[in-house]
Design goal:
Layout lengths: L26 H8 L3 H8 L2
């Protein structure tokens, strides 16, 4: 996967935020609620 920080346009929304689903929980909130790291959530998000 490409790192969005290396994107020359920098127009991507932050990870965990969905424009089409404004009520979707952010990754950090989900990590706190479930007791796992954001890195773990991002790993499974990419599967």
């Amino acid at each position: 996967m490409l790192d969005p920080r290396n994107c020359p346009t920098q127009t991507h929304p932050p990870r965990g935020i969905s424009r089409s689903h404004p009520t979707m929980m952010q990754i950090g909130d989900l990590a706190v609620k479930t007791g796992v790291s954001t890195r773990t959530i991002r790993y499974y998000e990419e599967l």
